[in-house]
Amino acid sequence: MTRVAAIDCGTNTIRLLIAEADRDRSGRPRLEVLRRRNEIVRLGQGVDRTGVLNPEALERTLTVVDAYATDCDELGVAPGEAVRRFVATSATRDARNREDFVTGVRRLLGVEPEVVSGQEEARLSFSGSLLGARGGEDSGVREGSECAQTPRLVVDLGGGSTELVLGVDAPSAAISLDTGSVRITERFLTGGVTPETEAAARAEVRGLLDDAERVVDLSAPGQLVGLAGTITTVTAHALGLQAFDPQALNGAELSPDAVLTSCEAIVHSTAEQRASWGYLAPGRRDVIAAGALVWSEVVTRVVERTAAAGRPLERVTTSLYDILDGIALSLVPAQAALEGDEA
Prior knowledge:
- This protein is an alpha/beta fold.
- It is 46% helix and 20% strand.
- It has 2 domains: 2-119 and 327-342, ATPase, nucleotide binding domain (Nucleotidyltransferase, domain 5); 137-320, 2-Layer Sandwich (Nucleotidyltransferase, domain 5), CATH 3.30.420.
- α7 crosses α13 (288-308) and α8 packs across α13.
- The protein starts with a strand and ends with a helix.
């Protein structure tokens, strides 16, 4: 087994996964998780408006990178890009001063951070989500099963971008949209949700989904799978949880109506209500209304398109396996190398 470290740095959060990585007897990659960490740093603070990373946001983020580097050393992750991979997504992709960020990560972690494209972000998200379809790190989709043959639409709803990826066991179509909880908040909802600001925000998201449909067939999926913090929050609300419960959330299946009902409640929630939800991290409270708005538009569009095609969407699935797991899976040694080691 190879010990690996994956870091996903998005617009709102930065996350670490340290795991033992190898392949099972059939050659499928698998992970044995040793540590997961998640910190909300809001690296993308103001990037949509200014085009640059805020110095305070950059400092917050690099402080966490330093802590993650310590975790890697403590758990014995070797130096080097063969076993450490740092992926930065929307906020860094959009920032003119991203070299300041790149230099800081290189100094602290000893590897070059990858400012990946939206397409690569989508591919990694899909790859990680398959662990959820397989029931976790140590199992796999069985060939010929209904789950293995049904196209799934994976939606990774982040702070600055949202990826829509369609496929069975690999992406067949994908697009990254410049919308998410932080971006929509900063563009439309800084003064709160009003009928006017909500209408403007929904109009923007709908326009982006029109663009998405030129690339991804939203009538095709038999399963809709949602990833990341906004979607887990909506799911926790729909399930009536009192606190964040990974066992209840991962693989949870809800009707589209249940998802949309919770989205509506969250979009129009008060600050006091959001503060009372034990599953909602403080750093996500000010952007969750925007995230729920985006998710409601995606779900509504897929429901409409699948119904029109005569294949009504019956369930919406939440997965805690996402781009972070996809990054870790990308570090699993090739099968040939493993066989050579055994010889």
